[in-house]
What we know:
54% of the residues lie in helices and 10% in strands. By secondary structure, the chain is α/β, with parallel strands linked by helices.
Amino acid sequence: MFDRSKFLDIEPYDKEAAEAACQRLKSHPEYIYALASALYPEVSDESYAARKAFVAGVLAHLDEVHGYDDFQKKITCGVFLEAILEHTVDEFSYSGITEHLDPEKSYLFISNHRDIVLDCALLDLALYRSGYPICEMAIGDNLLSNSFIEDIFKLNGAIIVKRDLPVREKYLETVRLSEYFVEKIASGKSVWVAQKSGRSKDGIDVTHPSIVKMLHLAKKREGVPFTEVIKGCRIVPVAVSYQYDPNDVSKAREEVVTMHNDGDYRKGRFEDVFSMIRGLREYKGDVHISFGEPLVADYANADEVAREIDRQIHLGYRLCDTNWFCYDQVNGTRENEDWYASLDQDAFLSRFSHLNDEVRTFILNSYANPVRSRLAELG
C-alpha cells in the first residue's frame, strides 16, 4: 500500500492542500489575470475580453476542486489547454491510446521533451479526452520560482525532483524518488517523466539510461530483479511533436553559447519562466502525441530499455513539413519536397533571418534531426 507519509515534500497536493491552494488563487485573482495576460499579451479589446473570460473560467471552477485530479480535469484541461489550443495550435491529434493502453492499468509514460509545461499537459489532455485516467508528472524544483507557480504545478500533479543537492543527499533522494515512482504506479496511478533531464534543444531524442536505472534503485535494495521492476512500471514510450517550436531560437542561442564556453551556460533567474510563457502563448501549428506499446519484454539492463524507448519515439514521432523542409535545406536537396509542398518556405526561413549563420544552422538541424532519427531506425 502506498505510504504518503514518506513523500509529503515531493508529492502533488492532497485534498486538503489542493483546496487551500485554490482558496489562495481565489483571494488573488490578479495572479490568474497575470497568467491570462501572458497568454493574451496583445493590447486590444479582443485580448482584454479573452483575459476576462479566462479568469472567469478559472474562478468558476475553483470551489469544485477537491484534489489535483479535479484541477487537472476542470481547469487545466477544461479552461487552460482549451485556450492554448484555440489560439496557438492548428490541429491537436493523438494516437495509440485505445490500441495500446488499458484504462484499468497504470503506466510510466516516458516521452521526448520539447516544452517545459506542454509535453505532459497535452499528454494528459489526450488521455482525458479519450476517457483514460490522467497522470502525475515529474518536474525539477528549479522551475518553482515562486509560490504561485508552485501551487499551479502541484495542483497539476507535480512530483518535485530536487536537483541541487550534495552527492550523498542526491543519491538518497534518487532512491526515494525511485520508491515513489514504483509504488505510485503499483497503487494504480500513472506517472510521466521526460526521457532525460532538460529539454531536447537539438531535436535529438535520446533516453538517458540513468532514468531507467533510477526505477530499480529502491527495489534493488530489497532484492527485486531489474526485469521485474521494469515490467511492473509498464513503461510506455510517448513521442510529442510540434510543427513549430516557440523556443527554437532561444534553445539554439543557449546551445551555441554553451559550445563556445566549454559547456558552461548560466541561466538567468527567470529564464525558465520566460521559456514556459513563450511555449504556452506562441504559435505551434500542428501538435501530435503518439503513445507507443508498453515494454513487456525481459530487458537485461537499462541500456536495452532506453534503446527500445528511443526506437518507439523515433518511429512514433509525427514528422511535419517543417522537419522535412529543414532536412532538405541542410542537405542541399529537394528530394522530399512533396512533404512540404504547402509550407510557406520564405516565411519559415524569415523567422531566423536576423540570426547569425551558426545559430540559424543549429535551428535548421534541430528540425531536421527527427527525420534523421526516423531514417536511422528504418535502416
